[in-house]
Amino acid sequence: MRKQTIPLSESQIQHDCLVWFRLQYPKLALLLFAVPNGGRRDAKTGARMKYEGVIRGVADLILLVPKKGYASLCIEMKTPKGVQSDGQKEWQREAEKYRNRYVVCRSLPEFMKAVNEYLL
User: Fold this and answer.
1) In this entry, which stretches build a coiled coil (predicted)?
2) Residue-range domain boundaries for the chain
């Protein structure tokens, strides 16, 4: 009988990526951070966040380390079947226009490859 596996959520994939990064690059651990853009919120919280400067479409993770001519590495996390929203695509274009590297990662191995290629 074949074992059925439950697909990982975007949150679980992102968590695994952060754990790996902090173990692999402890000296850079404080420079990779999550942007709390997603998730369901009540109207009051959403309005307050917008008032405070939250911008729709910003990448899930940002590594604030300039490398190889880039200002930073912006990482959008997705499940294997996830797709970028129009707002995310628009933010990607703007980030890339100003020399930021932008990648979409759908798994821990993709994240590891993207980070290692960027940093090494």
Assistant:
1) none
2) 27-37+56-120
Nearest-angstrom CA–CA distance, 120 and 118: 6
- Distance of alpha carbon 113 from alpha carbon 93, whole angstroms: 22
% of the chain beyond a pLDDT of 70: 95
What residues form DSSP beta bridges with 32?
63
Hunting for tokens 């993709």 — which residue is that?
A: 110
- Which amino acid would we find at residue 35? V
What does DSSP say about strands 32-34 and 61-63: parallel, antiparallel, or unpaired?
antiparallel
CATH architecture of 27-37+56-120: 3-Layer(aba) Sandwich (3.40)
**Residue 13 · residue 106 · CB < 8 Å:** yes
pLDDT of residue 4: 63
- Please, what's the b/e burial string for 74-112 (b: 16 or more CB within 10 A of its CB; e: otherwise)? bbbbbeeeeeeeeebeebbeebeeeebbbbbbbbbebbb
